[in-house]
From TrEMBL:
Protein's UniProt name: UPF0210 protein AML91_07190
Stated family: Belongs to the UPF0210 family.
Transmembrane segments: none
Pfam families: DUF711
Source organism per UniProt: Paenibacillus jilunlii
InterPro entries in UniProt: UPF0210
Oligomer and partners: Homodimer.
Length: 452
């Protein structure tokens, strides 16, 4: 039973602390859409998505009104297209991306994820077609998001795919250079990608999932920040307990919305992803949480420890509040989407190297980082390899979403708009790594992968 005090607390979190349900994401299997003819396959995909998600946006809006909880995004994830379209006789999946975009617009969702490939051990024909199609697909669509998984703790790192993705990211940047290379903001390279992630741009509906599910992502950096302000100066035990208790309350909101959405749509509830995903709004920032913890700026000595505390205790609190916690769950550190992170970069407190260190203990990795458009494809591949190695060795999800902004250099600002925010172009290490990247082949999995 929810008490009146809990209701009042929740209302205060929404009004004053930027608490929101960041996304309701419907995962849809496209496995039964398979066909050798592109036109038939595309029609099957369009019909399946528009039929399954017909009431998704309206249901989200109805729940917003009923519970008074902002539901910022309504989204769809689908089976990785390299798998679902594997039987199609074609040399490009761009027409599939266009159909995904059309279906997303028809049902009114913000983004649709799943223009994806899983190539941690190697590429199939469909994987290679998918990857080669990414630059054009992201240039000609508005709502399609793409992801490629290049490594795992079980399989190692596919360095051929890492090298290829360095080139694909630059091609995508070039194809969308008139819009500050925004295509790259919809492209993520993963190690240890999860099958039930409701957040974009990395969401896809895994092959181990049900036919259709509802996954909900809840976000509340502002709520955590306000709670920690009330225990300023207290010891670390108090700090951790405060984060856990607050994360529990935030997750309960998501659980309520997820269960009700599942019932109204007649679709099984999948997971709650409690990820502290910031926005460009002041007061809704992971970096500002660090400052409340006692750091002058994000990037100061102690930042990685502070992030580890935050990430771990968010998970501990959240897991007790929902029957199924999954996705990524923890703390995101996207630069362009976090007012405090942007400020820390501008003041020289936060560098790419420090961000890489922080990814060892956060939920994802190097996220929404603008880099010079002159950065080489080998350097981008090296950045991907570093992040994949962190994920592989630590048995966690890591990712790279960097945006080489064509025509801009270090210090210039880039405006992406909306939740994607804005960012200063960050400096990248200029020393050459091409001899390493060009070796090719696969980096074997670490010894602790053999757990059978």
């Amino acid at each position: 039973m929810i008490s009146i005090v809990e209701v009042q607390e929740t209302n205060k979190m929404i009004r004053e602390m930027n608490l929101d349900v960041r996304t309701i994401t419907m995962g849809i299997s496209l496995m039964d859409c398979a066909h050798t003819d592109m036109r038939v396959f595309n029609q099957n995909v369009y019909d399946k998505i528009t039929r399954s998600a017909e009431k998704l946006v309206k249901t989200g809006e109805d729940l917003e009104r009923q519970f008074g909880v902002p539901i910022v995004n309504k989204r769809i994830s689908v089976t990785p297209i390299s798998i679902a379209a594997g039987a199609v006789h074609t040399d490009t999946y761009v027409p599939v991306a266009e159909v995904l975009d059309k279906a997303a617009k028809e049902v009114g969702v913000n983004f649709i994820g799943g223009f994806s490939a899983l190539v941690q051990k190697g590429c199939t024909k469909g994987d290679r077609i998918l990857i080669d199609s990414i630059p054009e697909a992201l240039a000609v669509t508005e709502r399609v998001c793409s992801s490629v998984n290049v490594g795992s703790s079980r399989s190692g790192i596919n360095m051929d795919a890492v090298k290829l993705m360095g080139d694909i990211i630059l091609q995508t940047a070039e194809r969308t250079k008139e819009r500050d290379s925004i295509g790259c903001a919809k492209l993520v390279v993963f190690c240890n990608a999860v099958e039930d992630n409701p957040f974009m741009a990395g969401a896809f509906h895994g092959v181990g999932e049900r036919e259709c599910v509802i996954n909900v992502g809840v976000s509340g950096p502002g709520v955590i920040k306000r709670a920690l302000e009330e225990v300023k100066g207290h010891d670390f035990e108090t700090l951790c307990e405060t984060i856990k208790r607050t994360a529990f309350k935030v997750t309960r909101v998501g659980q309520l919305v997820a269960q009700e959405a599942s019932k109204r749509l007649g679709v099984p509830f999948g997971i709650i992803d409690l990820s502290l995903a910031p926005t460009p709004l002041i007061g809704d920032s992971i970096a500002e949480i660090f400052q409340v913890m006692g750091l002058e700026e994000a990037g100061a000595p102690g930042t990685t420890a502070a992030l580890a505390i935050l990430n771990d205790n968010v998970k501990k609190g959240g897991v007790m509040a929902s029957s199924y916690v999954g996705g990524l769950s923890g703390a995101f550190i996207p630069v362009s989407e976090d007012h405090g992170m942007i400020q820390a970069v501008q003041r020289g407190a936060l560098t790419l190297e420090k961000l890489e260190a922080m990814t060892c203990v956060c939920s994802v990795g190097l996220d929404m980082i603008a880099i010079p458009g002159s950065t080489s494809k080998e350097t981008i591949a090296g950045i991907i390899a570093d992040e994949a190695a962190i994920g592989m060795v630590n048995n966690k999800t890591t990712a790279v979403r960097v945006i080489p902004v064509i025509g801009k250099e270090v210090g210039e600002m880039v405006e992406f708009g909306g939740l994607l925010g804005y960012a200063p172009v960050m400096a990248v290490n200029k020393f050459d790594c091409s001899g390493f990247v060009n070796r090719g082949g696969r980096i074997p999995a670490p010894i602790h992968s053999f757990k059978n």
